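seq as requested:
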Amino acid sequence: MPEQVGIVLVGHGRSASALLEAARGVCGETGLADVIAVDAGRGETDDLKTRLKAALKAADRGGGVLMIADAYGASPCSCGIREASAPPVVLSGLSFNVLLKLASLDRATLSPEELARTCADSARRALAVHVPSPAPAKESTA
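struct tokens:
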């Protein structure tokens, strides 16, 4: 069996585990069972460094690692890049839509970069702005 790409989510507060839990609630475990979420709390600490290093190591099963971070360049993302034994591919913009797309992809046939690009494209398409139309003027009955 081909090696799958490992996935590590990292985000401020409890965003990584909360988004993963929400996505699993919709998709079930399929495609997301072995995804590892690391909640950064308020940012970089010695504890976060230790947890990220362990998560990135555990995720790497030979197919590479994709780290999905909430904000590129923020301390949790930067910490993950520094603590990885091999530089992971990084996708910033951790979101529910990214995880739903990830759950549908075959991580044994795609590279970390292909996964990142496919998830990013899907997330861009999922963005929308809805501006409600003004309510029609009521006619006067006088």
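The mean pLDDT is 93.
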